[in-house]
Amino acid sequence: MADAQPKKDRPNARFHGRVEAPGRLCAEPGCSEAGEFRAPPLQGTGRPGDGPPPFRWLCLDHVRAFNSGYNFFKGMSPDEIHDAQSPLAGWERETRAFNTTGGADRPPRWADFSDPLDAISARFRDKMKDRAERKDGKPLSGKDREAMRTLALEIDTDRTGLRQRYSELVRRYHPDRNGGDRGHEAKLQEVIAAYQHLRSSPAFA
Hints:
Layout: E1 37-39, E2 56-58, H1 60-68, H2 78-84, H3 119-131, H4 142-150, H5 159-173, H6 185-199
Antiparallel strand pairs: 1-2
Helix pairs in contact: 4-6, 5-6
């Protein structure tokens, strides 16, 4: 049987709440151990101005002693203790009323934005273009819209326009039209796949 692991002088460095800082000693008078555990100051947790509260740093033994003797209700009157123990404690503050006009906060007006480079407007137009519907009422699936973007087709393109655009792109990317250059084959395959999908789509029936 393997020998038991030797007991460490100090607890694991991952001990909950431990914050190591070389050279920082325990704040308990006369203690020479490292101060690695935060505790409230003796005079309370009041904040000096806008700064953080001046916490004390204690060693493990002294923070355990502090925790064992900690009394949340110390210094409170019976009425304050009763209020603190109420299930509704902390809920007495008035909350913000819900918006009854539209179910959400009113968005800023479009005129409130400055868009000299047309960045916001262009993005909005592209988004609306992807959601546009055909005038003939024929439905478009997500794959239909993706294929139409591949072929750079307008939303209301009909079957004749689809064939014309397909022929144009095939001539543009086919190696025979580019002196045998096969550098556009990947794009050509995308065009063929998009056309094959759209020609069987209800929108182009």
